[in-house]
Design goal:
This protein is an alpha/beta fold. It contains ten helices and eight strands. Helix 5 links the parallel strand 2 and strand 3. The site of zinc ion has 9 residues, from helix 8.
Length: 249
């Protein structure tokens, strides 16, 4: 590790259970960020700043003026540019040591299993169930951990899945067809609420990649920001889950 790296990451290297070994684990890691919107913005910025070695930035959309209230990785000058490219520019300026890969088409059109199999962890920061289910299935198939977040209005939720046999997985939480997409474009969202949830996703990603602390595996945190109250629920694996039950021992 170079002197510049030791200095850049000194405040986390100082952490007793992190150290140089933790930093080297981050540098050796590849992470997929699905969606560079309100959640993906803080997620990608924190992970790049922390020194994750390779970030795959997936978003098929372009930056719109109405995004800028909460999608803080994008700037006014980037309106009209693909979000993945806008994010790449911001992250390269933040930390030139991180390898940045962009995926500008829908993940459903891309070869999602290949992309997921090539990373150590996936962060679901998207806004629709179709992508969430597809990402979850690819993570279970590849045995890759998944950190999932969502926020709308003044509410947020965040959870993590190990990707290992025994579940649970995202599909256990939302049996297919059970959900209707509620989007921020129709329901509104308070900007810092996505920041809170995205920050927790980034924290969990760093913990899982470095072995720090205890991951949020199998627990769901629910935030009510109107009352500023958290609830924590344990997520049981669904024995009839079509995605993770087949991998269960
Ligand atoms: Zn499942």
């Amino acid at each position: 590790m170079t002197d510049a790296e030791l200095l850049r990451y000194s405040r986390q290297i100082l952490l007793p259970d992190f150290g140089i070994a933790g930093q080297e684990r981050l540098r050796a890691s590849g992470v997929l960020v699905v969606g560079l919107g309100g959640l993906g913005s803080p997620v990608a910025m924190y992970l790049a700043a922390a020194g994750v070695g390779r970030l795959v930035l997936a978003d098929f959309d372009a930056v719109d003026l109405s995004n800028l209230q909460r999608q803080i990785i994008h700037t006014t000058a980037q309106i009209g540019r693909p979000k993945a490219e806008s994010a790449r520019i911001a992250l390269a300026a933040l930390n030139p040591d991180v390898e940045l890969v962009t995926v500008k088409r829908s993940l459903v059109e891309e070869t999602l299993p290949d992309i997921v199999a090539g990373v150590d962890l996936v962060l679901d920061c998207c806004d629709n169930f179709q992508t969430r289910f597809a990402v979850n299935a690819a993570c279970v198939a590849a045995g890759v951990p998944l950190v999932s977040g969502a926020a709308i209005r003044l509410e947020g939720q965040v959870t993590a899945f190990s990707g290992q046999p025994g579940g649970p997985c995202y599909q256990c939480l939302y049996p297919r067809d059970g959900g209707i997409d509620e989007t921020c474009s129709t329901n509104g969202v308070l900007a810092p609420v996505v920041g809170i949830i995205g920050s927790i996703q980034a924290t969990e990603a760093i913990k899982i990649l470095t072995g720090l602390g205890e991951p949020l595996f199998g627990r769901l945190l629910l935030l009510d920001a109107a009352l500023m109250q958290w609830r924590s629920l344990r997520l049981p694996a669904d024995p009839s889950c079509p995605i993770c039950s087949v991998t269960r021992p």
